[in-house]
């Protein structure tokens, strides 16, 4: 099949085609879910599925590729083709997508002299290597070779950062388009929202050079379609992201887009001359493992017509009616030139009449659209009511075996062979140590609580001394544990003491002598400004008397917990993504005085290293089963919990109800379900989200941000053996409250 375009539409084998697409991100569901999702899309009147390609997941370590399981891109595309759907692939490799690091692998930070998404040789070299590799993977899938792929995208939404990079950015865009066109895939390339230079209104002709299409992202694309046609008169109007809702962050409210508003905006776009839409997202899915961006919830429903579990919603019924009406009218829409609006008899009423006799009546005040045929018959009315879909949670009948537990020890208690600690004269940034292969990193120093208030470095004999020479000293696997005295600083024993971490991300749990004393205040902000700004400072007021901390030497332990990497420059004040940081990277102050002792860093958790979440390895460990393990005795921080159960009868979708837990990670049969956090959703839409308020509504639910966590049916055993559930709880929760429930 050949793919091209004219000023009116995409051409498949020379025939104008109305693109009715929905976005589905293959890693956010499982292979067993894909056929049902794709079938529902076709039955809802769609003819195309769109997805990103996730470099950050396919190549977590440089040179180690993974296209298996839920990362099996080829299988996903072939299933779409078998269902009669075309495919749009957005290669990026920067994709945004609310995924970890915007789709870039975290190891890029370690490439010398790199700067992301600008005219930087190191970044262009790595990007070109990946894009060429992906091109060979998808080449057999492209339409000229008999496959379903009709469009591919290079880069993504460059308008968001164009002003930062200026001419360097324009050179980078030109290079990106040339790279894409050099691959010879035989299909048009898309450069979504990449057409602006730094100066307002200036057109960057490079963004749509050759056979590259400029497309639209918006809540209401009809409001910008006129500008698109003025700047690209030779191109059709394709709407790459028609946002079906929005994502939710931990502690934030869930923004919602009503079905009627979404249907109105979609129909209104076609009335104004649009010829292709992609609902973003049709199915959002789940951020399994550590795949989500900074602060993003594990659920990624995004207001899709199919919910997180792949079940139809009321929105699906609304849009199915519209899609089928548009598909039935497609030839009449595309046979005509773009219509002009005729003002109606009252304000806000517009008439768009096609030469084929088709008429769109649009009421921009009431936000409704009617499509009327040549003989006056109403083919579609966005205001028509549809029967609502109601979902609920039902008990699965599963009974968990008695819970076992193990404490996650502080690094001083780790066996020597498990340690890989690094000591330094100042805190070291976390990603230098973890390579983003774990959320966790310990920072430890020692403090000497005295009454004088003086802060002095303590030498290895306990007396004041200067710092040792050399920035780093690694503790070998069989090395001796460092002396607490060798890390000490003196601090005053006032009633209330202030611990200030001047630069830190994201969550910090504070321990003194192994006792949990504080955690990061919430809610956190999605946009925290530059890395040297105040939103990266955390302050804790600690009452040492109430904590029964007496004068003398004490160990200060900080467990820094990442919540995902940023997705774009704007999340750190438009600094380059290469500057993303986690953990501590600046001085720590106690009562206004800098702690001068050495710092000991231990990446990860002992439970991660020893395979506590692995069903086979975990079964070989001794798990405590004392009665104190549940109920009041359970609410202690840093606990690993393990139980088994027998798969319930029937099929899911299933979810874990974690309403009685705190914050941590969950695994089923070794598969990481993702992060969980029972944080109340009290934070309203931030000021930077004001532009959404005409399209979205948001209100607190009076409950946690996310209570239910998806357990894919194909992650449960089918051989009759026991399923294994493991939780790592950071703050303290009661596993006796955990339930497996069914979505109905």
How are the elements arranged and paired?
Layout: E1 3-5, E2 10-12, E3 15-17, E4 19-24, H1 34-43, E5 48-52, H2 55-58, H3 73-82, E6 86-92, H4 121-138, E7 149-154, H5 162-181, E8 189-190, E9 212-213, E10 216-218, H6 225-231, E11 238-243, H7 259-271, E12 276-283, H8 314-335, E13 341-343, E14 349-353, E15 359-363, E16 368-372, E17 378-381, E18 393-395, E19 404-407, E20 422-424, H9 430-434, E21 440-450, E22 472-474, E23 488-492, E24 496-501, E25 504-505, E26 507-512, E27 515-519, E28 538-543, E29 552-561, E30 583-584, E31 588-590, E32 593-594, E33 599-603, H10 606-609, H11 615-619, E34 639-645, E35 654-657, E36 663-668, E37 671-677, E38 708-711, E39 723-729, E40 739-743
Parallel strand pairs: 4-5, 4-12, 5-6, 6-7, 7-8, 8-9, 10-11, 11-12, 21-23
Antiparallel strand pairs: 1-2, 2-3, 13-14, 14-15, 15-16, 16-17, 18-40, 19-34, 20-22, 20-33, 21-29, 21-33, 24-28, 24-31, 25-30, 26-27, 26-29, 31-32, 34-39, 35-38, 35-40, 36-37, 36-39
Helix pairs in contact: 7-8
């Amino acid at each position: 099949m050949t793919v091209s375009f004219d000023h009116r539409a995409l051409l498949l084998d020379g025939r104008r085609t109305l693109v009715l697409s929905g976005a589905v991100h293959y890693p956010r569901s499982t292979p067993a879910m894909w056929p049902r999702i794709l079938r529902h899309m076709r039955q809802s009147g769609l003819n195309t599925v769109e997805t990103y390609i996730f470099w950050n997941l396919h190549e977590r370590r440089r040179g180690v590729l993974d296209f298996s399981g839920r990362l099996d891109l080829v299988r996903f595309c072939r299933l779409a083709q078998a269902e009669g759907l075309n495919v749009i692939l957005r290669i990026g490799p920067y994709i945004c997508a609310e995924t970890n690091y915007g789709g870039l692998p975290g190891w890029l930070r370690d490439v010398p002299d790199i700067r992301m998404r600008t005219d930087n040789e190191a970044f262009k070299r790595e990007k070109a290597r990946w894009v060429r590799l992906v091109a060979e993977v998808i080449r057999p899938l492209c339409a000229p070779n008999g496959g379903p792929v009709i469009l591919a995208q290079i880069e993504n939404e460059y308008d968001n950062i164009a002003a930062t990079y200026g001419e360097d950015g324009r050179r980078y865009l030109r290079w990106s388009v040339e790279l894409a066109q050099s691959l010879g895939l035989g299909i048009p390339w898309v450069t979504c929202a990449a057409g602006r230079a730094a100066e307002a209104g200036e057109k960057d002709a490079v963004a749509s050079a050759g056979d590259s299409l400029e497309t639209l992202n918006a809540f209401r694309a009809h409001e910008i379609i006129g500008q698109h046609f003025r700047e690209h008169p030779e191109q059709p109007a394709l709407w790459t992201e028609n946002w079906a809702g929005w994502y939710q962050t931990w502690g934030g409210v869930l923004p919602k887009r009503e079905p009627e508003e979404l249907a109105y905006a979609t129909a209104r776009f076609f009335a104004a001359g649009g010829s292709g839409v992609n609902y973003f997202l049709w199915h959002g899915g789940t951020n399994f493992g550590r795949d989500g961006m900074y602060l993003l919830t594990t659920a990624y429903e995004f207001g899709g017509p199919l919910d997180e579990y792949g079940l139809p919603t009321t929105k699906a019924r609304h849009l199915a009616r519209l899609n089928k009406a548009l598909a039935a009218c497609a030839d009449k829409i595309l046979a005509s030139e773009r219509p002009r609006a005729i003002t109606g008899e009252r304000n806000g009423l517009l008439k768009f009449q096609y030469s084929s006799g088709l008429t769109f009546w649009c009421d921009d005040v009431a936000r409704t659209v009617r499509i009327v045929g040549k003989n006056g018959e109403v083919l579609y009315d966005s205001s028509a009511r549809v029967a609502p879909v109601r979902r609920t949670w039902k008990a699965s009948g599963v009974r968990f075996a008695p819970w076992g537990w193990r404490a996650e020890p502080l690094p001083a208690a780790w066996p020597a062979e498990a340690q890989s600690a690094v000591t330094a004269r100042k805190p070291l940034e976390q990603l230098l140590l973890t390579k983003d292969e774990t959320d966790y990193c310990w920072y430890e120093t020692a403090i000497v609580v005295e009454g004088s208030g003086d802060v002095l470095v303590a030498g290895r004999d306990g007396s004041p001394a200067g710092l040792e020479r050399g920035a780093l000293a690694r503790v070998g696997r069989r090395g001796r544990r460092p002396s607490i005295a060798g890390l000490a600083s003196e601090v005053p024993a006032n009633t209330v003491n202030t611990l200030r971490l001047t630069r830190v991300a994201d969550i910090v749990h504070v321990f003194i002598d192994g006792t949990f004393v504080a955690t990061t205040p919430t809610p956190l902000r999605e946009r925290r400004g530059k890395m040297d700004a105040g939103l990266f400072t955390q302050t804790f007021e600690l009452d040492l008397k109430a904590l029964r901390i007496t004068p003398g030497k004490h160990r200060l332990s900080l467990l820094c917990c990442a919540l995902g990497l940023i997705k774009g420059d704007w999340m750190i004040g438009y600094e380059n993504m290469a500057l993303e940081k986690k953990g501590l990277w600046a001085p720590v102050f106690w009562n206004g005085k800098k702690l001068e002792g050495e710092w000991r860093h231990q990446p990860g958790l002992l439970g991660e290293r020893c395979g506590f979440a692995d069903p086979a390895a975990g079964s070989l460990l001794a798990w405590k089963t004392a009665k104190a393990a549940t109920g009041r005795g359970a609410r202690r921080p840093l606990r690993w919990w393990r139980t088994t159960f027998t798969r319930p009868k029937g099929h899911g979708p299933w979810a874990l109800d974690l309403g009685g837990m705190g914050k941590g990670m969950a695994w089923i049969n070794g598969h990481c379900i993702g992060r969980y956090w029972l944080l109340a959703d009290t934070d309203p839409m931030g000021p930077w989200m004001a532009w959404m308020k005409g399209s979205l509504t948001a209100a607190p639910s009076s409950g946690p941000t996310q209570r239910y966590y998806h357990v894919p049916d194909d992650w449960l055993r089918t051989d009759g053996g026991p399923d294994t559930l493991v939780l790592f709880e950071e703050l303290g929760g009661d596993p006796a409250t955990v339930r497996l429930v069914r979505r109905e």
